[in-house]
Write a structure and sequence with these properties.
The complex is a heterodimer of chains A (about 120) and B (about 110). Chain A is mostly beta strands and about 120 residues long. Chain A is about 0% helix and about 50% strand. Chain A contains no helices and eleven strands. Chain A has strands at about 5, 10, 20-25, 35-40, 45-50, 55-60, 70-75, 80-85, 90-100, 110, 115-120. Chain B has about 110 residues and is mainly beta. In chain B, a hairpin with a 3-residue loop joins strand 5 and strand 6 (about 55). The termini of chain B are far apart.
Chain lengths: ~120, ~110
């Protein structure tokens, strides 16, 4: 079964750092782009960026460039989303998702992780 | 950034009726348009890609149409499990999502 399994919910304080993960299984992890999508409480979906685990080519939405870092470790089929200094406004559900087509950089997301809730509060 | 505008924000429909959801792009996205369904507490699910191709396992009552800047998702006969929020997404250039249409029971 093709699936993405994300790390568990996090509660952090403003200014703290955080790295959440997304582990792929059931397919060739290095051959499909993986993206991250933010959903703030009660709001819609926002495309943050994508990474190609095969060579770590990474692309960010202009809205998120410089705010987060996307990375991947292909040896353990895992993608990451990290923050160096969290803000209260980072409170949201974060989903990882896989592009549908082999190696396609522009594509729809066909497989989604279950989401990781990040809460930032003093 | 390409802005995706969905209408209406909320659609009230009775079970068995037809639902028509619209999505407009601020500039042409060709056919690089997807539709997703999201139920409360769940991750989104891909319904349609390439503007009109149903994803694997998606029932035939879901259909997509359009190209360029105007797109439509039609649910031919609403089932109880179809009441959810629907998002369009363009992936032609720096992907963006619409703000969503909530389909609720009338």
């Amino acid at each position: 079964e093709v699936q993405l399994v994300q790390s568990g919910a996090e509660v952090k304080k403003p200014g703290e750092s955080l790295k959440i993960s997304c582990k792929g299984s059931g397919y060739s992890f290095t051959s499909y782009w993986i993206g991250w999508v933010r959903q703030m409480p009660g709001k819609g979906l926002e495309w943050m960026g994508i990474i190609y685990p095969g060579d770590s080519d990474t692309r960010y939405s202009p809205s998120f460039q410089g705010q987060v870092t996307i990375s991947a470790d292909k040896s353990i089929s895992t993608a990451y989303l990290q923050w160096s200094s969290l803000k209260a406004s980072d409170t949201a559900m974060y989903y990882c998702a896989r592009h549908q087509v082999y190696k396609a950089a522009a594509d729809a997301f066909d497989i989604w992780g279950q989401g990781t809730m990040v809460t930032v509060s003093s | 950034e390409i802005v995706m505008t969905q209408s209406p924000a909320t659609l009230s429909v009775s079970p068995g009726e037809r639902a028509t959801l619209s999505c407009r792009a601020s500039q042409s996205v060709s056919s690089n348009l997807a539709w997703y369904q999201q139920k409360p507490g769940q991750a989104p699910r891909l319904l349609i890609y390439g503007a009109s191709t149903r994803a694997t396992g998606i029932p035939a009552r879901f259909s997509g149409s359009g190209s360029g800047t105007e797109f439509t998702l039609t649910i031919s006969s609403l089932q109880s499990e179809d009441f959810a929020v629907y998002y369009c997404q363009q992936y032609n250039n720096w992907p963006t999502f619409g703000q969503g249409t909530k389909v609720e029971i009338k």
